Amino acid sequence: MLQVRNATMRFGGLVAVNNASLDVKEGSITGLIGPNGAGKTTLFAVIAGFLKPTEGAISLYGKDITAEQPHKRAVSGIARTFQIVQPFAGLNVHENITVGAYLRHARPSDAVEKAREVAHQVGLEKDLEKSAASLTVAGRKRLELARALATEPKILLLDEVLAGLNPSEIRDIIPVIRSIRDSGVTILMIEHVMQAVMNLCEHVYVLAQGKMIAEGTPAAVCNDPAVIEAYLGKGSAERIARQSAENTGGPNA
Amino acid sequence: MIGRGYLPIILVTLVIALTPLVISSNSFFNFTVLVLIIALAAQGWNLLGGIGGQTSFGHAMFFGIGAYTASILQTHLGVNAWISLVAAIAAGALAGLIVGFLSFRAGLRGSYFALVTLAFAELLRVLANASELTGGAAGLLLKLDPGFANMQFSSRPTFMLLALAFVFVSLVITQKIVNSRFGAHLVAVRENEDAAKALGVDVLTVKLKAISLSGAMTAAAGVLYVQYFLYIDSGIAFGIWISIEALLAPMIGGRGMVLGPLIGAFTLHGLGEVTKSFAGRVPGIDLMVFAVVLIVVIAFASSGILGLIRKLADRFSSKGGA
Amino acid sequence: MFSPTIIIEAMINGLLTGAIYALVALGLTLVYGVLHIINFAHGATLAAAMFAVWGLNAAFGIDPYWAILIVTPVFFVLGYGVQRFVIGPAAHGDDGNILLITLGLSILIENALLAGFGSDTRSIPSDFSFSVVEAGPFLLSSARLVGAAGSLIVAVLFWLLMSRTDTGKAIRAVAREKLGANLVGINVGHIYAITFGLGCAALAVAASLLMPTFYVNPRIGGAFVNIAFTVVVLGGMGSIPGAMAGGLIIGMVESLSGLLLGESLGQIGIFIIFILVLLLRPTGLFGAKA
Ligand SMILES: Nc1ncnc2c1ncn2[C@@H]1O[C@H](COP(=O)(O)OP(=O)(O)O)[C@@H](O)[C@H]1O
Ligand SMILES: [Mg+2]
Description:
The complex is a heterotrimer of chains A (253), B (322) and C (290). Chain A is of the alpha/beta class. Chain A has helices at residues 40-48, 70-76, 93-101, 108-122, 137-150, 167-182, 194-200, 218-222, 225-232, 236-247; strands spanning 2-11, 14-24, 29-33, 55-60, 63-64, 78-80, 155-159, 186-190, 203-208, 211-216. In chain A, the strands form 2 sheets. In chain A, strands 6-7-8-3-9-10 form a 6-stranded mixed beta sheet, sandwiched between helices. In chain A, strands 2-1-4-5 form a 4-stranded antiparallel beta sheet, with helices on one face. In chain A, strand 9 and strand 10 form a beta hairpin. The longest helix of chain A is centred in the last third of the chain and has 16 residues, at 167-182. The radius of gyration of chain A is 19 Å and the shape is globular. Chain A starts with a strand and ends in a 6-residue tail after the last helix. The model of chain A has no long low-confidence stretch (mean pLDDT 91). Chain B has one domain: ABC transporter involved in vitamin B12 uptake, BtuC. Chain B is built from 14 helices and 2 strands; from the N terminus they run αααααβααααβααααα. Chain B has helices spanning 6-22, 26-51, 60-77, 81-105, 110-130, 156-178, 181-191, 193-198, 203-229, 234-238, 240-253, 260-279, 285-300, 304-321; strands at 140-141, 231-232. In chain B, helix 2 (26-51) packs across helix 12, helix 4 (81-105) packs antiparallel against helix 9 and helix 6 runs antiparallel to helix 9 (203-229). The longest helix of chain B is centred in the last third of the chain and has 27 residues, at 203-229. The radius of gyration of chain B is 19 Å and the shape is globular. Chain C has one domain: ABC transporter involved in vitamin B12 uptake, BtuC, CATH 1.10.3470. Chain C has a two-stranded antiparallel ribbon. In chain C, strands 2-3 form a two-stranded antiparallel sheet. The longest helix of chain C has 32 residues, at 4-35. Chains in contact: A-B, B-C. Chains B and C meet through helix 5, helix 11 and helix 13 of B and helix 3, helix 4, helix 10 and helix 12 of C. Residues 11, 14, 16, 34, 36-42 of chain A line the site of adenosine-5'-diphosphate.
């Protein structure tokens, strides 16, 4: 449903995204992984319309949306969360989510009700009256998720919603993400927590230094030498292969 | 059933409306009329600056455009006062749209936006001071001719009620906005533009709507001013004094809150009168007090008097509950 | 039409006035560059400094140029204190608040001057105010020449301070990256206050250089603050060389548009430049593109 074709994003001399393409299937949870500074967040910004790509095209359901403003893309069904959370700090949780709900509900009472529903869905129902600024890190991540979800998107872009959470908080939120997909929302997620990627994603893209270097199932991608090198440095894939060969007695045993 | 937020508006309006029954001093009505005119101008500021977070240092431009449009139409073209009022409000909205389009599209925010609004107001002041149309430095006099048709009233309480009616309408409009989707969008833009965009808010359109409504309200205040004083010149119309009054009242009363400008205007000018009665005829003493109050409010109670009251009420009720 | 001599003379006078404008704008742009705030009280502070210079002359007969030695340190200390103990703590780190606080300070200072000195216009009459230097076909005011030279000297001193001293290095570090500066042990609050103090000190020098040819009243700050903002915006907010160039340009524009459009419309050129630069190129002529 979502296609990125040969997107390139330059900041002056720096090429943050370099001729990257991806394809998200409707109803899937697709992962986007890669080392820090690979250009993942930049690619999200390009998809959501916050940055105009230097080259390349974005299309949703086959329709080219490269020239659309961010708010128009939200109307078309793209919602994003921010890696660095961006709450409306002066508002409470309920008001924060209601802003999102207003996208499809013009009547205040409907929007307020929709926001309450979404808060339930992500487990924020007890914090509705709390100020957004007073939430914990985990709470803020849930709020990012809830606000985006309240726009009733077709595709949800999640930028490291698990970063900064402890293992038990991660365990709590994984089923929430899966239930969102089961309710019919396609998900594209940037994630560093490999356990979550393995657990949730059907298909994974790997971005390194702006280039898309691999794609496939999580298991396949994790064993891809190019991916291991991207994360751990040149020559590491070979070293790891050699080590594991020695540990298991080696291929020539 | 009265919708959310309207009860305090009705109560406050009633209290002011009933004052002629117990007070008959002309100086009181002079005071109240001026405060109401400022409250109306300030409500315009509050829509854009308080609710929408776009701080303007140049709301005099709308006040002056309203005042001059009404005066010029009446004196030069003999247009009826009420029709002039409508034209003046439309001119204020249009001016807002133009200034908003130029500056918001250029991406001006924060201090830059404040400075550019100030520059527009000053530019208009210099032009009005030099132009034939506006009577140049001598200003424009409206012909004294009391009567409803001319929107002139020789009885001060009557004019006060007229000003109060304007303020009441501005309060109701503001409350309606606050309760609406547009209001939520405006607040979202104030709090975080990127997040608002991501949630489908058309930031530019929201700001443009806000600044034209804001310009219209403040222009109406300018019309009231000339209808009351029957005189306008470039310093009154486009001078920095009214830009500051329009900003101070909501800041002190509670920025972004519907009753903030009205409460702030009364508090400030009440305080000003008290100071003057103590300090005598020291020039500028009331403005010094205003300035100190502004700094103290920012330092210790950034949501103004209403914010303070709300905080105290919360503390009280949570203690009562515990 | 005007003869070339008159036009060239107007341009030279504009440049001389522009040098003082540059000095007035120097403090504003320095404060913006480091603290990233617009000091709205800049004009009112200049008015206060001009009254101080006038007062020293009226009370003790101190020559305005000698007054530099007194008002400059005093205004440095005042500026330091105001930033350290009023603006900093009251703003809670919010830029919008800072703008409003400096607006409050400006109202406060202006009306305190009004209460203290009344609304009369004052000047320091002396023979020197009217003495002129003949340069070819042009007659140039000696006091303005001294003013322009003084501005250049102050600009050079600022440049040396910023590039050669440890304080200057610390200021530049804070301007670039305040968190990082904090981490390497620079007291950011102190540096902010020093910067603010330097801005006020520059104003004190400007006031001393202005008083021999200019007059002062409590509202004079408003006129200068408009000009100073325009200079700063034109030169690029935060850029010291930009402020120097901007000051000279604005001085010339003002002088020429005053000559061509007359006294009352002369200011229009400045406002139009100001608005156009903000709308079309908010980073200024010399600032980097955002
Ligand atoms: N607005 C910007 N201007 C300049 N450089 C940027 C900007 N945004 C990101 N970058 C640079 O682009 C690169 C990719 O960043 P990012 O997309 O945040 O990576 P990731 O999310 O994969 O960690 C980094 O080198 C970053 O510094
Ligand atoms: Mg990232």
